[in-house]
Design brief:
Blueprint lengths: L1 E6 L4 E8 L3 E9 L11 H22 L9 E7 L3 H18 L3 E5 H7 L12 E6 L4 E8 L2 E7 L5 H11 L6 H9 L24 H11 L6 H30 L3 E5 L6 H13 L3 E3 L10 H13 L23
Parallel strand pairs: 1-4, 4-5, 6-9, 9-10
Antiparallel strand pairs: 1-2, 2-3, 6-7, 7-8
């Protein structure tokens, strides 16, 4: 069973081939860089780039993998959540190709793809597990019991952690995307005794909040001139605050649920300091940490192809409908 995966939820054009018997066959990604000058993703520009890049990327993928379109058994595409125009580009092409080839097309939940991405690796978690999904648009803890069975234990009340990174990087003049920029600057940062707030850590529960942290950084940045060293010092303080908040919540969730496996997924999951801290936290509890390679932390076609393959193997069929869901709560997703 060979599935083509298409991911176009935001500004990354991702495609991949996943075989149910042999695993991941090939994957390719085009990351748009034109948005950097705007300090964030411009939806219309993202859609136009998907239109230009998606079909040539698929052609190259099939050629390199020595696969023809008639070898495909199904096409999986991101149906939401995400930018409406970007989602429609992927959905339209996926549906058209599937119709022409007389094969199923499955709309996949973007966050389900992220939650399952660590299972693409050799060191893969079995169900059930606790998952921290942390990215530019989402920060949440989920109890992952089986395919399509997800319970949200806590999520951000305002900004996602990745959004806090992006906006703080703009404040510090470090560019976009903010996560890698903050992480790189933090390596040169000094401990200046600045302790930025850790929102909601003084309260029980598994909810997150990062808007106050962003405001605190803005005020700190105005206390003295922002030279290169000051930027690095503040980047270090910000990263420490976000990592500390995420790690404490994960530890709390592991204790409350009794899970022995923690998965970290999403773009912020590539942050090395976060991985190091969570490794220490889970080891202290006798649990195990799982995460995908950096290329599969950010948006990618492999996770969509894999999720589609699992759902197809579990008996899900193409309902024949066409549409995308820019807003699609994970809690509304059902098992196949």
């Amino acid at each position: 069973m060979l599935v083509l995966g298409i991911e176009t939820s935001c500004d990354d054009t991702g495609v991949a081939l996943y075989d149910h018997d042999t695993g991941l066959r090939a994957h390719a990604l085009f990351s748009q860089i034109s948005h950097a000058i705007y300090g964030g993703v411009v939806p219309e520009l993202a859609s136009r780039d998907h239109i230009q890049k998606l079909l040539p990327l698929i052609d190259t993928l099939l050629h390199d993998a020595q696969v023809t379109p008639t070898d495909l058994d199904a096409i999986a595409y991101t149906a939401g959540p995400g930018l409406a125009g970007a989602l429609l580009v992927g959905a339209t092409l996926a549906r058209a190709l599937a119709f022409a080839l007389a094969i199923p097309a499955l709309g996949i939940h973007h966050l389900e793809g992220h939650l399952l991405a660590p299972r693409l690796e050799t060191h893969a978690p079995d169900f059930p597990f606790l998952a921290l999904l942390v990215s530019g648009g989402h920060t949440l803890l989920a109890d992952v019991r089986a395919l399509g069975r997800y319970e949200i234990l806590g999520e951000s009340r305002d900004d996602a952690a990745g959004e806090a990174f992006d906006k703080s990087a703009q404040v510090l003049g470090l560019g976009y995307p903010g996560g890698p920029a903050i992480s790189a600057a933090a390596t040169e940062g000094r401990d200046i005794g600045l302790r930025l707030p850790r929102p909601l850590l003084d309260r029980p529960g598994l909810e997150f909040s990062f808007s106050g942290l962003k405001t605190a950084l803005l005020l700190a940045s105005q206390e003295q001139p922002l030279d290169d060293q000051r930027r690095c010092d503040l980047a270090r303080a910000l990263q420490e605050a976000i990592v500390d908040t995420l790690a404490v919540k994960c530890r709390r969730a592991l204790i409350e649920t009794g899970h022995e496996r923690l998965v970290i997924a999403g773009g912020v999951g590539a942050n090395q300091k976060l991985r190091e801290r969570l490794t220490d936290e889970v080891r202290a509890l006798g649990a195990t940490l799982y995460y995908p390679r950096p290329a599969f932390c950010t948006d990618n076609g492999a996770m969509i192809a894999y999720a589609g393959c699992l759902r197809l193997a579990a008996g899900q069929t193409d309902d024949g409908g066409f549409g995308v869901r820019p807003r699609w709560p994970l809690s509304e997703l059902s098992p196949p």
